[in-house]
Amino acid sequence: KQWYQRRVRESTKKDSLRQKLYLEVNNYLREYKHHFVHFEAMKVFSSQLGSLLQMGKSNRSDDDDLMLERILITIRNLLHVPSDSSEENDLQNSLTTHDRLVLSMADFGVTDLLFYLCGNKE
Questions:
Q1: Structure pTM?
Q2: For the chain, where are the alpha helices, taking DSSP H only?
């Protein structure tokens, strides 16, 4: 019985540490997401994506393909960051950071470039 109680206490400590670290990492990710919206990074992504896609697959170098891949992965990772529940419950501010990120993508044409990329057969 004592062994079981000790095991339960140890696993509870590990779970609480794991939960604390998870929340801490999520807070960092939310801050990054906020800064990407605040500093209009989508404007830069849009211009870079546009110029890379205009080159065409045959004219792009390996470095250009790598840059394209990194931009797409960054956008995917930003969209994957979970919303802040306190931000969603705030009645004063109707748009969450995620909403502002998606609007920023639409405003600077990133969504149009993503649609083009999805429909492109190259």
A1: 0.77
A2: 2-38, 41-55, 62-80, 85-88, 97-107, 110-119
